[in-house]
Every structure is written in C-alpha cells, then in structure tokens.
Amino acid sequence: MVDGETAAGRDFTFTASAPGFVFEQSGSDYILKESAAGADVSFDLANAESVTIREVPYGTKLTFRETPCAGYIVESVDAEQISDPDGIPLENSIDLAGEDGKQYEVRGNIEITYTNKKGLVPVVLRKVGYNNTDPQEQTYPLVGAKFKIHEGSISGNCVTAEVGGEEISEFTSAGADAVFFSGELKMGVRYYLEETEVPSGYNAPAGNYYFTIAEDGITLNCDVPTGQSNYDSWIERQTEGGVTVYTISIRNVAGVSLPSTGGPGRGVFYLPGILLTGLAGAGAVMKKKKTE
C-alpha cells in the first residue's frame, strides 16, 4: 500500500534472481527451474497484488531488488519466519545483503515485507539577480519574478499550493529572500521551472531550468545550452534535526547580457510499503503493501 491508500497507477518493480535457476511463469506465479545459464525475472507489484515463487529447493538463495516508482523510497525490509522445519533461527537463514539487494537462504516458509514511504523533501525556491559586469557576480534577492512549477516536463501538471486560503499554481518571488516557493516536493520526479514573468530590467532565461531530488542531493540543469555546465553553486543544503532542506537560487542577469533564472527548493518524502513473501521449498511470494 501507499500512504494507507490504494496505489492506483503506481508500480514498484522487483527483480528476483537465484544462481543456477530460471523463473518460469505459471499464471500470476513463477516456478523455479534449474538452468546452467540462469536468468533473473522482473515484475511489477501494485497495491494488494502478490507474486508467488513456487518449487524453490531447500537451501536455495533468492535475491530480491526493488525499484520504487518515482516519488517513493524503501524505508525498511522485514522478514518473518512462517514455518521452520529444522528449527533454524530466522536470522541465521537470511543474509541481508547491501546495495545489490536482499538475499534469503530459503530453509522454511518466510514472509518478507518491503515498506516504502512517499519521498517528499523540503525545498525552498528563490529568485536572485546579479550583474555580469561584477567580476565576483554577487547575487541579491530579486522580487517580482513569476514561476510555474511543472512535473515531468515543461507541459506537465503544475505544482499547486494554498496561499491565503486560495489554491495557486503561479508563484511570485517576494520578501527579504525573494522566495517564490517553500514546500515539499517528490523525490525522483523532474521539476521544470517556467518563468512566466521576468522582473523589469532583467533578461529572460535562455531556457527552462529543471531539477530532480535524489537521496543524496539535488541536480539542477537547463533544457538549452547556457554555457554553464554545473549549477551546484546555486544549491544550498542545510540539515537540522535529521531533516535536510534544499534551497535553490535561480538567477537572472541584469541588463541585456546573458540570461539566467531559477529558484532554490527543498523537499521531503515518504514511501509506501511492499510485501514480499518467500516460501522455502514451496516458493516465494511478493506482495505490495501501502502504509501511512
């Protein structure tokens, strides 16, 4: 489940592998078959769905890797022993591997639960100006710029926010720091910044700036060549109380020289849950589950 509700249209992709075996599909399930070559299998799980991997020989090592859909991350992986023919403790029959996935040595029936949470990250977007005749290109807050924030592409859905009891989709840079957006945005989603109104005396941007939030930071770029290959200096990262906030300062140049625009942002995300079940000797079941 995702956020305790049906994850309509959201698929979480799993890849299963077992050395010396292939996965032969049988209806909605898979049967493990011996093969010298071996081959992985990939499948998607939506809310309340499950996949069973059957006829798994005792002692087989199964590895599962999950790729959450955009906007979600893996929060935890838990395993529970359902049946244990040899009395082997669960912790001794499961090897929780690292980045390559979770590996389980199937010696009994086990249920594996992948919990995902919605990936929302606090993001602040602000507008700054600068004069390219200044050798140090010092920036300053620039109010009056208007932006729309699109998901996925420049023509994608607009991000909205409630301001003064009204839902808006166009944001104006204002205040001492010229912030035009402050809120939570999804991890793994590309956001495009469309500057719909440029402050008087400043150049319009050459193109549209876009950014993507990942677990290790934010990547900012422009959809047309600008002569600038790295925008890291436009992004600030602050962590307090375990929460990381990103601020993106989109630049506009004064006069009629090089155009530049943008805005800082930060976001927080939480992921839904996914349930995987491995049945030793009989198979493995993977289910997707949503949590608040």
Secondary-structure element string: EEEEEEEHEEEEEEEEEEEEEEEE
CATH superfamily of the largest domain: Immunoglobulins
For the termini, the CA-CA separation is 8 Å
CATH architecture of the largest domain: Sandwich
The chain-level mean pLDDT equals 78
Here the CATH topology of the largest domain equals Immunoglobulin-like
- Number of helical segments with 4 or more residues: 1
Rg from C-alpha positions? Answer: 24 Å
Overview of the molecule:
The chain is an all-beta fold and 292 residues long. The chain has two domains: 12-118 and 271-288, no CATH class; 120-269, Immunoglobulins (Immunoglobulin-like, Sandwich). Helix content is 1%, strand content 53%. The strands form four sheets. Strands 2, 3, 5, 7, 10, 11, 16, 20, 21, 22 and 23 form an eleven-stranded mixed beta sheet that branches. The longest helix is centred in the first third of the chain and has 4 residues, at 90-93. The termini are close together. The relative contact order is 0.23.
